[in-house]
Amino acid sequence: MLKQKIFLTAKLAILGAFLLQVSFGQTPSLSQEQLALQIISQRYAIPISELTFVHKATIDEGITRIKVLHVPATQVYVVNLDAQNHEVDDATIQQILSAHRGRWFIGKLERALADAAKTGNPNELIKVDVWLKPGTNPPQLDRDAPESVRQAQLEAIKSYHAVLRKPVEDFVTHNNGQVIYGSQLAPLVHVAVPKSLINLVQSQSFTLDSSQPLTQSLSLQSLPEVDTLYLTRQLQTIQQQRIPYSPSLDHSTRAINADNFWSAGFRGSGIKIAAIEFPSGGTGIDYSQPYLADGTYCHPEDGPLRSDHATEVAGVIASTHPYL
After folding, report:
1. How far is C-alpha 237 from the chain's CA centre?
2. Residue 171: which residues within 8 A CB-CB, separation 6 or more?
3. How many angstroms separate the CA atoms of 252 and 74, rounded?
4. Is residue 2 very low, low, confident or very high in pLDDT (cuts 50, 70, 90)?
5. pTM listed for this prediction
6. 20 to 30 Å CA-CA from 268: which of 239, 261, 294, 322?
């Protein structure tokens, strides 16, 4: 009788330990997706039936970032799990992301830009995408506001970015460069500058009260308004066709799980999409592109002006190019 009681007690202890593992999400039978749902459900007291897995990606050192969506609130949460399915804190993630940045950037410079600027004639112009540091409390657009309010907000946003761009644009033009494009709605300036203005160089200047020269840094990245600098990618010719040079886009389909939808039969067949461009300058799609044979063109205001951006957007939507 005593042996039976001991045996029964042992079984109950094992069952209790198993239930505790399940309660705290440590059972090996749970997938990482299920574990992430459970963590978010417990942490924020959200019914697990209202949560759904969105996406996961391995960032480094066996750590996986899993996105979970709270469907009713359209709120996205992130769970970081290591190879043993233990949650990883934000400080560790920031260290890993900083290490990643160090591989691709030298200070504010993309490494590809830094390398390109070191070769050839230092006075040769090189095209650069300049991302600016946004100021505090930038104006916002309320899409639900009345039309008159939205227009006023839009003008405020344009003025804000014009002020943000000005120091960089002045620096570029005063140093034999060219401002190719300044975004009205984003902290971005597209410029062409001498290669000598990319990497940090030392220059000498004289003060009025002293004949001794002062050494100072003179480069695009030394400007406090600059956040990051990228090498502008050019169009390249592949099989006699001009397509965007995008070395990372070969992973984009898998990164957003588009291939899973395609394999399930969802190919967008029969779906009509309208691409609406901001009406300034050329906004039409260039249908002479062989991979954009289908589609109609509408531009009642300015006539048949073509735009590289509109054509690129159309390519994202409907290109038949085998590489993309």
Report:
1. 26
2. 220, 223
3. 23
4. very low
5. 0.51
6. 239
